[in-house]
């Protein structure tokens, strides 16, 4: 019944949108459309006419001013935006192997209506128009890509900026855009050698320095990266070859405070009630680290173009990335609010704004942590395109794309402390090891987290030993750590064909039809172990072991928290040599995390291109419809009353996605764009997993509804349908030749189908084994999971522009600004009326760059700002968790010099960059109205980079 209702709403909505598009097109004048995929692939250098055309004494070379560098990148982006019929944003390389920023994520985050979230100081995922990475897709040369995460969202630090020639973000898609997202589609473009049209060989290198210093033993504060690019044409310019290679070896560091959370003193274990009031909040505990990351990444991209005949162009391209992100995290975990034996007298504590902000804790037994987080990934991507264009109006192409990611994400936790402690607040069994030391320490809470004043020396290996300090092994097993390896394989194959015909018609300029088939398989296999100290001769778990001297490293300093130095070692060495022993975790929770998801997607489209005139107005655009058929399935392990059973489930469905895009080009370089369409975004792949736990309930809350025993479970939902929205865009743009523009963009999305968290839904258990004993009255039961029960709306305004100041006065040539600001309102509600926060949503996003570039000199400063948002953080065992992140403002700057034509060093560019110059923190809070409720507070420091590029 529920599925029928959903399909009815979908069909009705699609029909209404389609009728509106037909009526809009019927009232339009004749027009011509440009293929959405025909975005110019610019090299980053242009000849910009800026001369006296009436002077016959000037030859062609004298009558051209060559614009290069950042100004050329902006001109290319302005030209791309102006020529398109769609609502897009783009950025182009300043030169071969040189995007305007050190990272592709940072470059994208400077585009209007776009921002990013940092990971260890790097911009790795983006949010478009207030929606996080779950709501947009990424293409490489027009083809869908696999991801290094559990979801579909691409992490952009996987792609070296040196191999990228152009990035285009489609905010409003057309029918022929395959793999589109709900709020945007990012297309990363690499260079096409025949289109580039000349030979070039370029090399570059840079060094980097992190001013926060090397925080862990064995880490570095200096890094480097190098790249080389070669492009050439052969056989009378009928064969083109490009090859780009980039290698990175750079460190990243951060100091982090993390709180377990906050609770009223009245609910704290072992603490007496405070007569001043039991509602005052106190941190449950603290888990804080200094993290040092060594990032090593090799990226290789190659393209071969062959003009096989005057009619046929063959393009073969491939991309490979080897990604090695190795982290060492050292710190301490401290129970505070009466947890695990900690005591204190709250009546003596200081109180500010409902929080205990100072006091003294007693009997504190901390867990000194030496953790490893290592992510290794290999990404393979490529494709073959054969394009036929005989020049008579007909054209066609066939395309094959392939993408695969193999990833291992290893997390090792290692615990040490003053002794074994089994003193659970949930048990009366107290087992303190004889001679255990506990700490008495003061604490101070501020907006940056907790600051401590301990009495113990946590760097002394005579008192800090390998053990289970807080009895996390349950009092029986000595759990001295945890080992969690997540093995992910993601493979995608895409086949596509299109046939097009240009018309000499007063209304339609052409017609195209195409079909695409996408086959995707993604799997996760968890491999988890308890880390113990092994067994003694009696078969009992060893409680404590001294850290062997040969494994000890220089202590790690947590002075930023007042904690001083900590015992440091690499747990991988202790596991390798048998000091720490791995014991398999046989809990049902482990296989429940595994999933295999398959998708077979057929997309067929037909699109009419529009080109016409309305008096002095040129009208272009397109009108089309895309039909998408999806067959999704998931296999895995479910748990029938705790017993493992192999199961498989899924669903199939179809979506009709009409779209209309119009661009009216008025005299005076004004452009008005209008877009209306229906959009979808598929669910997270890990949310589609079939692994659930279920059983027959005879006393649950739904017994009366079902009229007896019923099936109840919880887990993933292989029957999830995509997010859906009906969207409208209206844009007003003014251009200043080919170098500048200002724009005002308004958009509205009616979210017809949203995926809500933790809701109860009807679920068909007919494909699952039934338990023995009491039988359910129906094979349809309930499942606590994510479900398509939400709806809402999203609307906003974006103002953007690129203004070279020479349009105001020739004396200001070389100066300019570019950037944008957007404000977005959003409301999404579940079926029960409860509002939900959208991941990645910031109400305000702004960015801007001021620059000067002339006579070879260049300088620019950039600022990007976003207000509070629901951000992604790493939770227990590496699992993702979301918390409210605070607003942040990032400031970067660059200066450089390019040796001019005719000089001895012509072709050489030097630059110096500074990133995060204000040392902006990345922080989250439990309550945005009170900054004292800080959960995370991370400091990355400033980064300085010096480098060169040399083009032969």
UniProtKB/TrEMBL annotation:
Residues 33-59 are annotated as: Disordered. Keywords: Cell outer membrane, Membrane, Receptor, Signal. CDD domains: ligand_gated_channel. InterPro entries: Beta-barrel_TonB_sf, Plug_dom, Plug_dom_sf, TonB_rcpt_bac. Its main location: membrane. Residues 81-185 form the TonB-dependent receptor plug domain. It is found in: Cell outer membrane. Residues 1-33 form the signal peptide. Coiled coil: none annotated. GO terms for cellular component: cell outer membrane. Pfam families: Plug. NCBIfam families: TonB-Xanth-Caul (TIGR01782). This is Iron complex outermembrane receptor protein. It comes from Sphingomicrobium lutaoense.
């Amino acid at each position: 019944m529920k599925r029928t209702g959903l399909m009815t709403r979908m069909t009705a909505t699609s029909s209404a949108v389609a009728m509106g598009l037909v009526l809009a097109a019927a009232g339009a004048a004749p027009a011509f459309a440009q293929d959405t995929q025909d975005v110019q692939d610019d090299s980053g250098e242009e000849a910009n006419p800026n001369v006296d055309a009436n002077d016959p004494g000037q030859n062609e070379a004298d009558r051209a001013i060559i614009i290069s560098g950042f100004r050329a990148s902006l001109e290319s982006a302005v030209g791309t935006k102006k020529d398109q019929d769609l609502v897009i944003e783009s950025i182009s390389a300043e030169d071969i192997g040189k995007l305007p920023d050190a990272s592709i994520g940072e470059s994208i985050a400077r585009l209007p209506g776009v921002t990013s979230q940092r990971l260890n100081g790097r911009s790795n995922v983006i949010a478009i128009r207030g929606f996080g990475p779950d709501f947009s897709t990424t293409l490489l040369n027009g083809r869908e890509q696999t991801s290094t995460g559990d979801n579909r969202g691409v992490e952009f630090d996987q792609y070296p900026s040196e191999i990228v020639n152009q990035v285009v973000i489609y905010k409003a898609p057309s029918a022929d855009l395959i793999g589109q997202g709900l709020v945007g589609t990012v297309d990363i473009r690499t260079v096409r050698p025949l289109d580039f049209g000349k030979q070039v060989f370029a090399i570059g290198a840079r060094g980097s320095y992190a001013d926060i210093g090397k925080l862990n033993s064995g880490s570095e504060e200096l890094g480097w990266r190098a790249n080389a690019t070669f492009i050439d044409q052969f056989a009378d310019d009928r064969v083109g070859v490009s090859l780009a290679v980039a290698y990175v070896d750079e460190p990243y560091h951060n100091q982090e405070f993390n709180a377990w959370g906050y609770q009223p003193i009245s609910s704290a274990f072992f603490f007496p009630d405070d007569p001043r009031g039991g509602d005052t909040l106190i941190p449950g505990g603290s888990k804080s680290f200094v993290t040092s990351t060594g990032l090593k990444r090799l990226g290789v991209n190659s393209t071969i173009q062959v003009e096989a005949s005057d009619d046929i162009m063959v393009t073969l391209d491939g991309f490979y990335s080897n990604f090695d992100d190795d982290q060492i995290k050292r710190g301490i975990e401290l129970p505070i609010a009466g947890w695990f034996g900690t005591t204190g007298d709250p009546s003596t504590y200081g109180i500010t704004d409902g929080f205990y902000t100072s006091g003294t804790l007693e009997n504190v037994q901390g867990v000194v942590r030496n953790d490893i987080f290592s992510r290794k990934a290999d990404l393979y991507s490529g494709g073959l395109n054969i394009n036929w264009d005989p020049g008579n109006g007909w054209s066609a192409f066939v395309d094959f794309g392939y993408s695969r990611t193999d990833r291992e994400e290893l997390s090792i936790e290692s615990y040490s402390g003053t002794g074994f402690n089994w003193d659970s607040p949930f048990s009366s069994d107290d087992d303190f090891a004889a001679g255990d030391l506990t700490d008495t320490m003061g604490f101070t809470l501020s907006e940056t987290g907790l600051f401590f004043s301990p009495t113990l020396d946590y760097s002394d290996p005579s008192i800090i030993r390998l053990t289970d300090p807080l009895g996390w092994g349950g009092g029986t097993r000595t759990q001295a750590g945890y080992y969690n390896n997540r093995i992910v394989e993601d493979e995608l194959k895409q086949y596509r064909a299109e046939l097009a015909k240009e018309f000499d018609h007063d209304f339609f300029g052409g017609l195209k039809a195409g079909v695409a088939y996408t086959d995707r398989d993604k799997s996760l296999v968890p491999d988890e172990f308890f880390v113990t100290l092994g067994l003694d001769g009696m078969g009992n778990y060893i409680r404590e072991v001294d850290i062997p001297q040969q494994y000890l490293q220089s202590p790690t300093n947590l002075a930023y928290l007042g904690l001083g130095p900590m015992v440091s070692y690499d747990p991988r060495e202790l596991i390798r040599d048998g000091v720490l022993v791995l014991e398999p975790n046989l809990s049902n929770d482990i296989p429940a995390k595994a999933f295999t998801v398959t998708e077979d997607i057929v997309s067929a489209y037909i699109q009419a291109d529009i080109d016409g005139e309305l008096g002095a107005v040129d009208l272009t655009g397109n009108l089309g419809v895309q039909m998408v058929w999806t067959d999704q399935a998931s296999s895995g392990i479910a748990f029938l009353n705790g017993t493992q059973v192999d199961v498989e489930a899924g669903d199939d469905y179809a979506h009709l996605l009409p779209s209309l895009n119009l661009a009216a080009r008025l005299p005076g370089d004004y452009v008005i764009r209008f877009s209306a369409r229906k959009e979808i975004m598929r669910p997270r792949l890990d949310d589609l997993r079939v692994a659930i736990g279920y059983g027959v309930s005879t006393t649950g809350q739904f017994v009366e509804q079902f009229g007896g025993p019923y099936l109840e479970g919880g887990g993933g939902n292989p029957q999830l349908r995509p997010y859906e929205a009906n969207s409208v865009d209206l844009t007003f743009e003014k251009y200043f030749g080919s170098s500048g523009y200002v724009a005002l963009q308004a958009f509205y999305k009616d979210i017809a189908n949203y995926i809500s968290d933790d809701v109860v839904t009807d679920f068909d258990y007919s494909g699952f084994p039934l338990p023995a004993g009491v039988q359910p009255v129906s094979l349809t039961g309930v499942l606590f999971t994510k479900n398509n029960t939400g709806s809402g709306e999203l609307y906003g305004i974006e103002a953007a522009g690129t203004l070279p100041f020479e349009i105001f006065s020739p004396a200001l040539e070389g100066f300019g600004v570019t950037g944008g600001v957007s404000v977005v309102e959003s409301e999404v509600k579940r079926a029960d009326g409860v509002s939900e926060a959208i991941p990645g949503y910031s109400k305000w996003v702004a960015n801007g760059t001021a620059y000067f570039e002339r006579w070879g000199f260049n300088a620019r400063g950039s600022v990007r700002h976003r207000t509070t948002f629901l951000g992604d953080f790493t939770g227990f065992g590496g699992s993702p968790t979301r918390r409210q992140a605070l607003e942040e403002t990032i400031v970067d700057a660059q200066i450089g010099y390019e040796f001019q034509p005719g000089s001895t060093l012509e072709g050489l560019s030097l630059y110096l960059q500074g990133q995060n110059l204000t040392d902006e923190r990345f922080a989250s809070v439990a309550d945005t109205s009170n900054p004292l409720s800080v959960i995370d507070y991370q400091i990355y420091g400033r980064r300085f980079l010096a480098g060169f590029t040399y083009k032969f």
